[in-house]
Amino acid sequence: MSAFLKLLARNRLALAGGVVLSVVVLLAIITPLLPLADPNVTNTAARFTKPFSEGALLGTDHLGRDLLSRLMWGTRLSLAVGFAAAVVAATLGAAIGIIAGYYGGRTDNLIMRGVDLLMAFPYILLALAIVAALGPGLFNALIAVAAVNVPFFARNIRGITVGIAHKEFVDAAKLAGLTHRQIILKEILPNVVPVIVIAMSTTIGWMILETAGLSFLGLGSQPPQADLGSMLGEARSAMIANPHTSVVPGVMILIIVMSINLLGDGVRDALDPRLKSGALSRPMAATRVERSGDIPETEGKGLLELQNLQTQFHVGNRIYKAVGGVSLNVEKGECLGIIGESGSGKSVTALSVMGLVASPPGVITGGAVRYEGEDLVGAPYGRLRDMRGRNVAYIFQDPLATLHPLYRVGDQLIEAIRAHRPISEAEGRTKAIELLKSVRIPNPEKRVSDYPHEMSGGMRQRVGIAMALANDPDVIIADEPTTALDVTVQAQILSLLDELRRSRGLAIVFITHDFGVVAQLCDRVAVMYGGRIVEEGPTTDILDRPAHPYTARLMACVPELGGGKRRLEAIPGLPPAVDRLPQGCAFAARCDRVQESCQAADVPLGGEGLHAVRCLFPFTSPQEAAE
Ligand code: ADP
Ligand code: MG
What we know:
Strand order of the largest sheet: 7-8-9-4-10-11-12
CATH superfamily of one domain: MetI-like
Bound molecules: adenosine-5'-diphosphate, magnesium ion
Helix content: 40-55%
């Protein structure tokens, strides 16, 4: 709630609208307590007194009634009627929409065609017809305004409900034996309430206007009762000679509707979680770069070389050091594994390479990413765009989320190629089939016109790989590509990647949290923890002689086939939050070899030869690590 208010307050216009509206509503509430003249007492001797005259601050109308008093009472009435109409319309409309959307089928058809029928009439005509049938009067005007707005709410809410009614959590509630009524009240309603509030906050001003319109035509409030519409209507004949009689209620209507709409927009933006996460602030095309300090010189190691890369997220006044100085390199034809628990910074490292970390909040604050020696951090967007997919391609975890659900996979492959070079439709199709064949999808001539949902998970991931291969990249960064797949499919995908790397000389950066996968595929492996590399070396070396306690712990999490009875142990405790990294070794709090010096100062990456480790008391023998 306080987060909601904070978001709302950040929107200046909404804040102004809220303040003005609060003042108006407050005044309307305390109107009976104010020392005002009776709004309905006529005094024809004092007709059309000008504003700011003695005893009548806003002047008087054609019957000599005090305009200030009428304005206050009128505002009170108009606000009450408009608000009541909005509540009635929202409640009825939402109920109708939820029932139609939840039950679907014939119920839905019947209800929605009725709603369509109402919507087919011009708005104001329908309201007039209703008032004509019920007879003039403020209460009937309220009913008319509510009635013509019900279809709007019903349509909106039905759309949302249809989307929710078949979600897994609703199915789960059904399986748990909840009745329809319970499901609607407990599962559906909480999900549509924000939408109802948003729809209401954006239409309530409109309803006040409509009520005023009916009163203006003499169909709403009846004399002598004042509401803003009837005041305008009565002032119509005196508009030229005594404009103040129409200006007073007119300005009040303007103020009310403006402030409600400004506030309503603010409420919508603050309540909508998609907008809240920053969708309104357009993300930048490439990650923001703010490097202080020296840019490291190239060491010419490998095709892709990360040097002391630092990527942070700046959220409010917090700084999340997701990647805190990572150096890595990978050669042509080599497979480098990056392994670590969830949240250790693997994905952010990978995305930083091509400037794909979303900004805001992502910022690259230091280091370099070199591709054949060229520094890509801070490279112009055009250069990065040109290289994305053509030099460095990505494979992500969830192929269903990365493939467009509405296009055939062939067309998506062609699109990926066309991003970098123009080819004809026929040529593209041939190339797409060729790509599918190269990732060993059976019957590619037919499969090329499948939609993503027509394929199995493993096959979709093969399409994901085909897409990465579309422009013959030199480096493929695979971010947990097999995590969503079952073990046999995982093995197939791994052998496919292995074969591709050997046949095409690809450099692969393979991100995983599974040492079993690393053992199968990678030549070298880097272990990440808390945004830094804690151990790095040739895979066999690390598997045989893990030096860092964290690495040993990670390996103990992998079951071994035929390895006999062994306890599989999860690592106790949680990884550190990267906005509050401890001093010294980040693993110290969970380590059973910890000593005082571990937490005193930064621990450097040390070790002899190719096998480096960031630990003051590393294991020196495999036996020690196995205990
Ligand atoms: P993983 O190793 O599981 O791929 P990530 O690289 O995705 O981990 O995340 C590394 C760290 O960065 C996490 O601790 C996460 O909390 C933080 N992080 C990622 N995205 C954001 C973001 N948009 N705002 C703040 N922190 C983030
Ligand atoms: Mg990740």
